[in-house]
Amino acid sequence: MVLTSCNFTENLDVKDDGTGTFALEIDGSGLMAMAGDKLTESLSQKNDAKVIDSVFSFKEIFEAKKDSISKLSTEQQAALKKMENFMMHIKMNAEKQQFLFSMDTPFKNVADLQNMMDGFKTLKDLKGKSDSEGTSNPLENSMDNNAKIDFAYTGKTFSRKAIIDKEALAKIKNDSLGMTKMIFASSKYTLKYHFPKAVKTVSNPDALFSADRKTVTVEYPFVDYMEHPEKLNLNVVFE
Predict the structure, then answer these.
(1) Residue 137's pLDDT is what?
(2) Cα(115)–Cα(96) distance, integer angstroms
(3) By three-state DSSP, how is residue 35 classified?
(4) How many CB atoms lie within 10 A of CB 161?
(5) 48 Ramachandran zone, left/alpha/beta (phi>0; psi -120 to 50)
(6) From edge to edge, which strands make up the β-sheet containing 98-107?
(7) Distance of alpha carbon 87 from alpha carbon 105, whole angstroms
(8) Got the DSSP string for 177-235?
(9) Domain of life of the organism in this record (predicted)?
(10) Alpha-carbon distance 128 to 217, whole Å?
(11) What was the pLDDT predicted at 191?
């Protein structure tokens, strides 16, 4: 199934003291529009419902799986620990052609977000080992471009920098980027960052501002972001 329109948005709301909230939102409504009755039937059979509206925390999941998690390595357990405060929200409505997925978490310091994807990569690795058929969900794999994101906020400046594993990124390009290009050909990856102060300058030439210059939005083709994560790097200076 080709996900012809699946858009990703990073929403970041930073308070003056450096605390705030982070959310990753995925709008796969284009998938619903394309799949039609077949997806409706699939959802109905697997979930006994044509409408899904579910909210849960990773902390609840990990508590239920604590015995299995205790058998993981110290590094894997630490990576999962970073995900405990994430809340997940899934909304599916085939009739309304709606498919929305979001993960959000509060943070005490912007820098705490820099390794936020470690836990998701750990979950992906664990799932891969337990998948007897070796199947792969393109939506699950879509966020893994082997780049860690380093965030920093001083009150006067803000930065978002992708730290790239060039060897791993080259392997992605060689092994699977062709499939990614086909699946996410018309998808977008968007940054939408709200700050407590007006922005004076921003390094990314494609950035757009709100009327009060406190919100910065940057949009790139998703495949472009996967190939070149550094294109969404930002250096912001406040007034």
Answers:
(1) 44
(2) 36
(3) helix
(4) 18
(5) left
(6) 51-57, 87-93, 98-107, 20-27, 7-14, 188-194, 215-221, 208-209
(7) 6
(8) HHHHHHHTTT-EEEEEEE-SS-EEEES-TT-EE-TTS-EEEEEEEHHHHHH-GGGG-EE
(9) Bacteria
(10) 34
(11) 95
Residue 92: count of CB within 10 angstroms of its CB:
23
Q: Digits of tens for pLDDT over the chain (239 positions)? A: 444 567 899 999 999 999 999 999 988 777 666 655 555 555 555 555 567 888 989 888 888 888 888 888 888 888 888 888 899 898 888 777 788 889 999 999 998 887 666 666 666 666 555 544 444 444 454 555 567 888 999 999 999 998 877 665 566 555 555 556 666 777 889 999 999 999 999 999 989 999 999 999 999 988 888 888 888 999 999 99
Q: Which two tokens stand for residue 99?
A: 């498919």
Chain mean position to CA 66: 25
Q: Which class for 48: exposed (0-12), middle (13-18), buried (19 or more C-beta within 10 A)?
A: exposed
Provide the 10 A C-beta neighbour count for residue 226: 25
- The pair of three-digit structure tokens given for residue 211, joined into one six-digit string: 């009327």
